[in-house]
Amino acid sequence: MQILRHHEISRARLETLLCVSCGVLLSLSVRCSAAHAQGNALEDYIHRLESSYRGVRTLQAEFTQTYVWGGRTRIESGTVIFAKGGLMRWDYREPKEKIFLSDGKKLLLYLPEEKQLTRSPVKSSDDIRVPFRLLLSRLSLRKVFSKIEFADPALPHDQRDRVLRAFPRHGYEQDYRDVLMEVTPDFDIKRLLVSYPDRSTMEFVFDRIKRNIALNPRLFRFEPPPGTEVIEQH
Predict the structure, then answer these.
(1) What CATH code is carried by the domain that includes residue 195?
(2) What total of structural domains would you count in the chain?
């Protein structure tokens, strides 16, 4: 009887162990399937986001740019336009007028109050506004970032929108920590928040976004008024 009882106990333990093991495996399988499904959903979303810009020739929006550092905040606003070929123009109205322009090769920063124009090569610039010009050129998030994920809880946002978090590629970790993007159902990037290693942040909020509007090519060419100090940077 004792031997029979011992076998019964062993069998019970074995059945319990098998049940627990199956439960763990099932749980892992569900988690893997969920992760796989989420991965597929993310890849599909990124593909649709990138594809939505491929037929866009021009883009215009009102913007607010907010820089926060060391307990201080600077807010600027105006109108921005983009066009294929790496063209862009930021016309700042508040709090002071200025123009930040790319003709595809050169960056120009014009400060009318100081009567000063600075020119520099696009390729040598680390200005946070420069990557925006690629929206209508060759948008490929996987080439720009090392990792991208859904991050809806990271930003207060319209429930219809999605939030993506992107991390820097190897070698760019000192430039920024991560980027949060709020994307509308029409795949307009209406908010972008960049966090830096020193805990400062740069945020762009875009409004009244219009695609494929007629633009005068002269908008991307700028001749400074007579008497303007021109500074060439290399």
Answers:
(1) 2.50.20.10
(2) 1
Q: Cα separation of 183 and 191, whole Å?
A: 7
Would you say residue 49 lies in a domain?
no
- Classify residue 11: in a domain, yes or no: no
Counting as low any pLDDT under 70, the low residues of the chain are 1-39, 124, 130-131, 133-138
CA atoms of 124 and 102, how far apart (whole Å): 13
Q: For residue 190, how many other CB atoms are within 10 A of its CB?
A: 19
Query: What does the pLDDT look like over 121-134, one tens digit per residue?
Result: 887 677 777 667 66
The amino acid present at 187, given as its one-letter code, is F
**pLDDT one-digit tens code per residue, 155-168:** 999 999 999 999 98
Taking only Cα atoms into account, the Rg of the chain, rounded to an integer number of angstroms, comes to 26
DSSP type of residue 143:
H
Which residue range forms the structural domain that includes residue 130? Answer: 58-232
